[in-house]
Design a protein that fits this description.
Layout lengths: L11 H17 L35 H12 L14 H13 L11 H9 L1
Amino acid sequence: MIRKTPPFRRTAGASALAALALATALATAPGVAADDSNAPPPGSSPVCAFYDGDGLTAFGEQGDRVSQVQCILANRRYLPWEAVNGTFDTQTLAAVQRFQADHPPLVPDGLVGPNTWSALWHA
């Protein structure tokens, strides 16, 4: 008789624990702790959970990829939290370029491709 295992199901407790672990890691990483001038808005969380890929993201785009870029940049204090709006605007472009300039060998071209995504995730 072949025994089937039940499908893996995430529980609310496991998800909450994962979110707490990520928030703790982000809060204790160098350069990411929010200060009074760059704190997340009341009722929000510094955990970025919009997108987890590395697709090209550029000026003028909207959506989850942009929100993810903005959230990570806000956590790293390159972008104010009130600018996390899901639109890759001039403020986001300038923040991406500053981040890229601070993380050679990235080219500060404002395009968020695989190399910039990697640096955002691991900086």
